[in-house]
Amino acid sequence: MAQPLFRAVATSTRPLYQLLRCVNFTNKIHVLITEEGIRFSADLSRVMQGTASLDKKLFASYHLNLGESDDESSQPDLPSFQINLPALLETLQIFGAVDVATRAQKAEQDPYRSNLRNYRPDAFSNQALGIGGTCCLQLAEEGAPLSIIIEESGVKTVANLTTYVPEIPEDIPFDRDELAYKIIMQSRYLLDGLAELSPNGPKRLTITTSRGPPYLTLAGNGDLGTTVVDFAKGRELLETLSVQERWVQTYKFDLIKSSTEAMRIASKISLRGDRQGVLSLQFMVEVEGGGVSFLDFRFVPFISHEDDEDGQEGGEGEGEEGGEGDEPDRGDEEL
Amino acid sequence: MAVLNLTLSEDAVVALRDALICLNKFSDDVSLEAQKDKLILTALNSSKSAYACFSFSATRFCSRYHFEGSSQNHEKFYCTLYIRALISIFRSRVGGDPQRDREKETLIDRCEVAIEDGPGVQSRFIAKLVFRNGIASTHRLPFEVVVPVHAKFNREEAVNHWTIPSRTLRQLMDHFGPGVELLDVNSDGEHVKFTCFTEKTVNGDEVLKKPLRTSIAIEVDEFEDLKIEDSLHIVINVRDFRAIIQHAGISGTNVMARYSGPARPLQLTYPGDAVSCEFLLMTVGERTANPPHKTKRGKSVNSTKGPRQQQLEAASRRQSAAPSEQLQGAPQPQASGHAQSRLGGAQPPPPQHPMLSAGSNVGRMSAFDLRPSQRPAPPPTMRSEGLFVDDYQWEPVHEDDEETEENARLEWDQSVQTAEPTSRMDRTMSDADETNEANADATQASSVGLEPTQRLSEVERMGLFFRE
User: Fold this and answer.
1) Kind of pairing between the strands at A163-164 and A80-84
2) For chain B, which has fewer Cβ within 10 Å, the N-terminal or C-terminal residue?
3) Domain boundaries along the sequence of chain A
4) Which of A199, A227, A237 sits opposite B135 (nearest CB)?
5) Which neighbouring-strand residues pair with A186?
6) Which is more confident, B203 or A308?
7) A→B interface, C-beta within 8 Å
8) What is the CATH number of domain A6-161?
9) ipTM score for this prediction
10) Is domain A179-313 annotated with CATH 2.30.180.10?
């Protein structure tokens, strides 16, 4: 067998590592390889889903050989499997380790090298620059282990990660046609907002959007008290704001918090909610030299009861009530 | 209806945070007391041996301050809050990811604090932080309405005092190891010694098991102002002291300590920007240059928790007869025979230190009061004369107002007054070469029982002149 099913070569694992770390909230992650890139989807009890799409631009070369199956059907089976994400992340970190060792050795020999600030990461290290080595992701055939071959400074590391049969997680349904609101903002603002809430240790996060000020509020009720973050000066903070109606939903705070790594590296976030209450967070991550990659998170809300304070708000519109009817089945999964 | 509304600038938030961090080293809860013109934060530790008080000047500290008062009390409002919750609200948002230009973004533009209380209103401490980037976060904390406990300090009694830059103290603290618990401050005439030690592994007689004992002698010149009695050992808790110095180091001002004697409170004060900071620490120790094992005795008092306070109080009652008021000259008229007969019963052993020969009751104190555990606890009917009193007793103590019995216990021993030691170290005197001579003279004079002929304040002035 000359041609492996899939082979992609990257000169640096740093962007891959950064993106994959954002969806590192489950042990196993679903991988789907397409012509355009690799999709890593993590699913947590069908309540939270995170998808990292690695664009093929992140790789120096990217080959997917679907072979003859192309002729038989118009929709060839794309390689799909599950993999242990922590193991993959660990492997990707090997890249650059040799470089560090070489430099440490060099530093000892170099009499002119100052011993001051030795501990600092060097801006010109191969790891930071992403040069001096290659990282190759290779899948020989369907069901074969995913091989990660790292070559740098004459050292070749081959790691074979077992692939598992895909479980085909069902996507959390998100109705793009029935959007309650759509907000685009810098992702760090959302991060700052959550950072205000988190010292309080709230269990639930309530997101409220409204047409008028304060447009978007995050609220949490913790042991120490209540915290409300609002984006009142919304016109400067929120780049795009389209709210159909007042919308209140509650999510598990810890789940939202596990997407903070994405907020940290992303430049922009699109915050959307559909009428059923599903929250979609889309992060745009600008990768140097690799264009733009996207991270996609979806969250299922808590069931809002009629006697909740949220439910007492009059004139919520039919959309929300209709949404509540659909929710219980998702809420059960959550429990 | 908001009882209190105030707006803080960013710098004020930082100052408030520093104060809260310092308070948190004493207690988990802070008492907030709002008045028309000031805002007072106090904390008392659980063993009631340390007390911290930050008094913010309302107009200077807050960019806006409006005290409405509650319907019950128009004068002041007080509540108790959990410090950690406050610290997390006022924490620094700068830092974190250096790649992001957070400096401009997440700085606090202003902070609006409102306290709501009253019938039909949820009692909440509401802090609204407005950031420069336009995000506003509102924190609502529950609080408890508790009458704050204030410690009182009799400044007239505290004749020993020194003032030193906080920076110097900070450098000093760097030398103390991590395991130390107690700090002994004493002087030998030329130096002031700060000795750090612990008594943790005293069980067993192995000398090697004893932890390190670090003593640092500071020249008298390092002090801005100094007047303390020689060989007076004042022992305080290092942890408390460290917390105070850490905070004092932020403003970099001079720290002033006042104290009278062992088992009496020690006061540390320093001014900040629009805030005055006061700390009272309970002390143990001994006055005479006793063998080290006696010092330990004093400290073992410190290690006991519950009954200790009582013991310290009891001790303090007797020691309040310590000589301290020679500057005031005139003996207190209230020094009744009651007190003298009470104290006179115990005759002091001959003082061991010649320089302290005058303080006859001092010797007695170290001989008897250093064994407080064997002394019966004070009768429960006695009105508590402890360090800590509640709010209504906050006013300075006027001896005249007290009951006679109280006076009897508190007043200076007249017999001692006459033989007042002049041996207390005075910077102006000890600075010159003839320190020893002067001390010797003083000793001689006092042992003979001569009355002081000059007020010390006058001598001080002359001393300044000589020093040049």
Assistant:
1) antiparallel
2) C
3) 6-161, 179-313
4) A237
5) A268
6) B203
7) 188-189, 192-193, 195-197, 199-200, 214, 224-234, 236-237, 264
8) 3.70.10.10
9) 0.75
10) no
